[in-house]
Amino acid sequence: SLFSKLQFFTTVNDLHSLPYNGLEVAFAGRSNAGKSSAINTLANHTRLAYVSKTPGRTQHINYFTLGDDRFLVDLPGYGYAQVPEAIREHWINLLSKYLQTRKQLVGLVILMDSRHPFKPLDRQMLDWFASTGRPVHVVLTKSDKLTRQQAAQTLASAKLELKHYPNHTCQLFSSLKKTGTEELDHVIQGWFNR
Ligand code: GDP
User: Fold this and answer.
1) Do 188 and 48 contact (CB within 8 A), yes or no?
2) Which residue ranges does the record assign to the EngB-type G domain (predicted)?
């Protein structure tokens, strides 16, 4: 698997400190979407990306190396209400600039809770990144919380939502049941190998 060599690389707090080598894939999502759990599941490692019990506190960018100058970038979770306005603004600006200008970024994974996907800030991320023309993969998390029928419906409506965006794909995922890991691995591998 692409993620078998996943290792923590560095933490950065501003765009000037980003490492400049290699290619990267970013993981974005509302806080509590299940992003840390997904990274841990992909890496088959329980505490690699800390599963935060205080959402919104981890306001930094974590770089993980996949080997061969390829990186997984864990972006700060957005949408947590308890964050002071000034800090929220700072991080939204950072996300917007990063998504619109980062040359090394070959694709974006947006994780959304499958029970309430496509919140306004999720759409904002899609819009910012759409200007780059690069691919996006929407991961509908915690699919174990849905019945099979609900899951199928959720996936179908997500596909409809994404019809307006060229080369955007989506899938269901569960860290709890470890389902969807191969599909996600395959999509990201494809981006790196383009
Ligand atoms: P993050 O803020 O996006 O990094 O979200 P976390 O990974 O910390 O997860 C937020 C909460 O959702 C935690 O309580 C997790 O245990 C829970 N969670 C994450 N993934 C899953 C999943 O696949 N299934 C279920 N049932 N719960 C999950």
Assistant:
1) no
2) 21-194
Tell which one of 37, 45, 146, 154 to mutate to probe ligand 1, the residue whose CB is within 8 A of the most ligand atoms: 37
32 Cα: distance to centroid of ligand 1 (angstroms):
6
Per the structure, how many domains does the chain have?
Answer: 1
Give the phi and the psi of residue 97 in degrees, each rounded to 5.
-65, -45
What pLDDT is recorded for position 172?
A: 98
Other residues' Cβ atoms within 10 Å of the Cβ of residue 181: 18
Domain boundaries, position 115: 2-192
Q: Tens of pLDDT along 98-135?
A: 999 999 999 999 999 999 999 999 999 999 999 999 99
ipTM over 0.85: yes
Provide the residue type at 96 as one letter. S
Ligand 1 residue neighbourhood (C-beta within 6 Å) = 29, 31-37, 51-52, 55, 77, 141-142, 144-145, 174-176
User: For residue 133, what is the domain's CATH number?
Assistant: 3.40.50.300
